[in-house]
Design brief:
The protein is of the alpha/beta class. 42% of the residues lie in helices and 14% in strands. The termini are far apart.
Length: 423
């Protein structure tokens, strides 16, 4: 069991952060988007990066079909698997999964799942010991996400316990690279949380943001949250954007990861805000619902059953053309649209593998548009059919602030507002 939160101590600078080095190679002038290289020990990663979430014993394993930038696993999922957990601890996470030793792995602590079990007394040292056995590239501290609809005191207790766990895990860490995580549901909370983390670990090379999934999820939650915050934000999604921009400003040089919001549409918003890293289990979840992903489009369902809010692939000419052009391992085995549709509709594994491919290719495409310094054009095109396009003015609003390299945002917001209104 963990100790109760006590007074802040003097700042401590932890050596494990020194094993990581992040270098930004290019920034866009009118958005926060950037590309770079993260090195952790002998492992090198190009950013932005998307970590595909995977479950113990889950199929398919996309890395057996094509190169993956990174894989995310959940510590509690591994703890709960009994004999498989022991095998993973003996072999290490990469060998256990059959990953190339050079493939980056990120372990989430499982804090959200602990909360679902109403457990705030999980031992962070148990998590740290698991990380030491599994030897991931990066391990997230044991953190407890906030809920926008519980009492303020409950969220305060969760954050204070996250700080306790952060200090304990960094103090007792040996050689692992740990990721501290910020949780906030307001700009002022985000600023305060960054200050408190800095007092514990110094200036982080790697930092995460959690608790944004409920803010990004639905319009209904958004309206309720606006009422509870005196209407300071147009929606909970707008608040999420402001929280990210705040943490990015507080830690301008850090490798920034945002948990749980790496969908094929949302990723482009996040990367345009200056987020370096995302994760998603959506490639599997969408497949489970019978849906596939295609560039610039929402879910397209492979069956022929009409349901509310479902777009069938066979009734969308643009989606049909995109599927014909798909280069994923599944589609490449079939020469016609009809055969590809049958292959995808008949198999969860085929849909999941196709989705994983599309997720990774979308990140690669974003990186190329950063190199061309044309992120606004690309993101606007990808979001033109999405409700998230209402966030574009907030994402592209680079108010004249000098960044760490002396660049000044020069984007014309009024022109973009006219452009986005025509989408």
């Amino acid at each position: 069991m963990t100790k109760e939160y006590t007074e802040q101590r003097e700042p401590t600078h932890m050596t494990p952060q020194c094993s990581a080095l992040y270098e930004v190679e290019k920034k866009t002038r009118s958005t926060g988007a950037r590309i770079g290289k993260l090195r952790v020990g002998d492992t090198k990663m190009s950013t932005p990066i998307l970590w595909l979430g995977h479950r113990v014993g889950g199929t398919p394993k996309p890395w057996q079909a094509f190169h993956l930038p990174g894989v995310l696993m959940n510590a509690l999922d591994i703890f709960a698997t009994g004999q498989a957990s022991q095998k993973a601890r003996e072999a290490g996470i990469n060998r256990y999964l059959g990953l190339d030793p050079s493939c980056p792995t990120l372990l989430d602590s499982g804090g959200y799942l602990y909360l679902k079990r109403n457990d705030l007394e999980a031992d962070p040292c148990d998590i740290l010991n698991l990380y030491e056995d599994l030897a991931p590239t990066i391990g997230a501290v044991l953190d407890y996400p906030l809920d926008p609809f519980v009492a303020i005191e409950v969220n305060q207790r969760r954050w204070q316990q996250t700080l306790v766990n952060t200090r304990l895990m960094f103090e007792r860490n040996g050689h692992l690279t740990l990721m501290p995580v910020v949780h906030a549901h307001s700009v002022s909370q985000a600023q305060k949380a960054c200050t408190e983390l800095r007092e514990i670990i110094g200036e982080p090379v790697i930092v995460g943001i959690g608790s944004l999934v409920p803010l990004m999820r639905t319009h209904h939650d958004g309206r309720l949250l606006v009422e509870r915050t005196a209407g300071q934000h147009k929606s909970s999604r707008h608040l999420a954007v402001e929280v990210i921009k705040t943490v990015r400003t507080e830690f301008p040089d850090a490798f920034l990861h945002v948990f749980g919001v790496g969908g094929t549409t949302t990723m482009h918003l996040m990367f345009a805000l200056g987020v370096d890293s995302l994760d998603s289990i959506g490639w599997r979840l969408k497949a489970g619902y019978g849906a596939i992903q295609l560039p610039g489009l929402g879910d397209r369902f492979t069956g022929n059953e009409h349901r509310r809010n479902r777009t069938l692939l066979i009734e969308d000419a643009v989606a049909k053309e995109a599927l014909i052009e798909c280069q994923c391992p599944v589609c490449q085995e079939h020469s016609t649209f009809e055969r590809r549709l049958i292959a995808l509709d008949s198999s969860f594994n085929n849909r999941a593998l196709h989705n994983a491919w599309v997720f990774v290719q979308e990140v690669n495409a974003f990186r190329e548009w950063v190199k061309a310094d044309s992120v606004e054009q690309f993101v606007s095109q990808r979001l033109q059919h999405s409700p998230l396009k209402s966030l574009l003015p907030a994402v592209f609003d680079r108010i004249s602030k000098v960044d760490s390299d002396g660049w000044v945002g020069g984007f014309n917001v009024s022109e973009h507002l006219r452009d986005s209104a025509a989408l």
